[in-house]
Amino acid sequence: MARQSSFLKLEGTIGDITFYKGRTGFKARQKGGVSKDRILKDPKFRRTRENLQEFARAANAAKFLKDAFRGIALKSSDGSLHNRLYSIATKVIYSDTLSNRGERRFELGNIQLMKGFQFSNQSTIENTLFKQPQISDEPDSVTVTIQAMVPATYLRSVVNTTHYRISLIRASINFVDGTYSEESVNSGEIPISMNEQEELVLTLPKPSIPDTHHFFAMALEYLQVLENGSKYDLYDLTQNPATILVVS
To answer: Which one of 123, 192, 201, 245 counts the least CB within 10 Å of its CB?
Structure first.
């Protein structure tokens, strides 16, 4: 490694030489590393090529999930959603025991690993709603039931909010074709008050579609509703929890 002895303290890249500041002063080094062509062709990098193929599939699966749940992604986000989806998608791919290394696929892995995924790492249903939802997973539908409750008692308090909304969302994804669709049902805006809110029941069908997996998620949004009826979503999106409840 070269060390700059001149009074010129360069930083950046010139040609194939990179100048940078280290702990002991300004230094220079030549670009190195393995060429892309060698990685793609050299038998010694076969395992690297296998890993790259599966990493690409994990990235695609994460993108499909994020796009299919776009309604949640826009309202429940802490900035780490894509990376965490990519991480769990990689685990699903690695769980594929039917395919050889380098050929493992998301849709052939254990997609049940997606169950319990939290869209916000900072706010979860468990630390926001203190009334456990009851989940009914039937062959042709999924139903979420929340027993009657007093919202001001059983909801985590968030400043500058007056109402909340609970939604059940189904993302149906064909990972082979790269197609997806979304359907949702919600409670409407419910006041956060000391008045008891009646039992809430949300149901969505589970369509029978070839080569398609269904992901059912529950989301809770905080809102501010003014006296004139104007509605404002919570500015701090990290406060809105959402989680995947059922995978089929």
So the answer is: 201
Residue 18 lies in a domain: no
Q: Please report whether residue 10 resides in a domain.
A: no
Question: What letter does residue 77 receive in the DSSP assignment?
Answer: -
For residues 19 and 12, is the Cβ–Cβ distance under 8 A? Answer: yes
pTM for this predicted structure? 0.81
Residue numbers in the chain where pLDDT is lower than 50: 1-2, 4, 7-8
Do 187 and 163 contact (CB within 8 A), yes or no?
Answer: no
Does residue 78 form part of some domain? yes
Question: In this structure, what token pair is assigned to residue 6?
Answer: 């001149």
Is 12 part of a structural domain of the chain? no
C-alpha separations of 7 from 10, 18, 22 in Å:
9, 17, 16
How confident is the model at residue 114, as a pLDDT? 96
Gap between the Cα atoms of 25 and 81, Å rounded: 39
Report the SS3 class of residue 228. coil
Domain holding 107, by residue range, is: 42-247
